[in-house]
Specification:
- It is a single chain.
- This protein is α/β, with parallel strands linked by helices.
- It folds into 2 domains: about 10-55 and about 80-130 and about 270-290, no CATH class; about 145-260 and about 295-305, hypothetical protein PF0899 fold.
- It has helices at about 10-25, 95-100, 100-130, 170, 175-185, 210-215, and strands at about 40, 45-50, 75-80, 85-90, 145-150, 155, 160-165, 200-205, 235-240, 250-255, 260-275, 280-295, 300-305.
- Strands 7-13-10-8-9 form a 5-stranded mixed sheet, with helices on one face.
- It is globular, with a radius of gyration of 26 Å.
């Protein structure tokens, strides 16, 4: 039986092909945010995290029959992830299809997918881009020298500032990376006890990639004519994020500790319908997600500041 495309529903004939183009374009190159964030699925309208402080050090028994010294964890901080809906669409007239402009139609789902990808990557990168300025759950930015210790009091840091940097070698070098690694190893929990933080990823903007390759992959110390070994060689995985907007900052992450989170409530979808009166076919993409962080631990930020800043 010959299908009469003059009948209502002709847009459905195009949907499978356009859907395929949409999802192929979405996956045409590896996502960057998934190399940095914990990517999770959500089945609720929002996600909520509540941190608890750990226990203090074990205590010596005072006698052979002394009682167990019981301890209670303290409530820490509350973190909320509220999912946001994102959507965009395009319309195709019946005449556009009838006049054999299908090659032009092919470009529309490609552009729709790419703009969706850019939105996701931009939003995810904003957690790091704003990590030196926007306050978080503990009233401090993600990267700060003043993170409060809930149980014992005091302040701790996951921020290194480099004064007077004028080129990539000043901000990203063996010394600054080693300083960041050492700072990570001094991380304590909310009870003031040290935790094991071992950064495994070096997250950088594109302009720092050549320098990152030199300091991570050189056998000897880069930038010198000495034969001293490079203590960083092969210890870190380089992750280049094109959506980082600061050329003078980089980040170290421990995947086993950090809580940079991206929640998918609805992964990207592509659907269509036809307007009965105008014969226009409407195609739209839709997704719903949230992003942020539940703990600053496991992440170290290094940035350049003005001399004396």
């Amino acid at each position: 039986m010959t299908l009469d495309t003059s009948k209502a529903g002709w847009s459905r004939l195009l949907e499978p092909g356009l859907r395929k183009i949409f999802f192929e374009s979405w996956k045409e190159y590896p996502t960057q945010f998934t190399q940095v964030f914990n990517v999770l699925n959500s089945k609720k309208h929002a996600e909520h995290d509540l941190s608890l402080t750990g226990f203090g050090p074990w205590e010596a028994r005072t006698s052979e029959t002394s009682a167990v010294p019981y301890d209670d964890p303290m409530e820490g901080f509350s973190i909320d992830y509220t999912h946001t809906e994102f959507l965009k669409g395009f319309k195709v007239s019946r005449a556009m299809v009838d006049d054999e402009l299908y090659n032009q139609i092919n470009k529309l789902p490609k552009n729709l997918a790419r703009s969706g990808r850019a939105k996701v990557e931009t939003d995810a990168a904003s957690v790091l881009n704003n990590g030196f300025t926007n306050t978080g759950y503990d009233t401090e930015p993600l990267f700060s020298k003043e993170h409060p210790i809930k149980r014992t009091g005091g302040k701790v840091s996951n921020l290194i500032e480099v004064s007077g940097a004028t080129n990539p070698e000043d901000i990203l070098n063996e010394d600054t990376v080693n300083e960041a690694i050492l700072l990570a190893r001094r991380t304590t929990d909310d009870a003031g006890l040290k935790i094991v933080v071992r950064p495994k990823k070096l997250v950088i903007p594109p302009n720092l990639e050549p320098q990152a390759q030199r300091i991570v992959n050189s056998a000897q110390r880069p930038g010198t004519d000495l034969n001293d070994i490079n203590t960083i060689k092969s210890k870190l995985q380089i992750v280049v994020m094109d959506y980082l907007d600061k050329d003078d900052a980089f980040f170290l992450l421990d995947d086993d500790v950090h809580e940079l989170n991206f929640f998918w409530r609805v992964r990207p979808e592509f659907k269509s319908e036809e307007d009965f009166d105008t014969l226009e076919a409407k195609y739209r993409g839709y997704m719903r997600y949230s992003h942020g962080y539940s703990n600053w631990r496991g992440a170290i930020g290094v940035r350049a500041v003005a001399s004396g800043g």
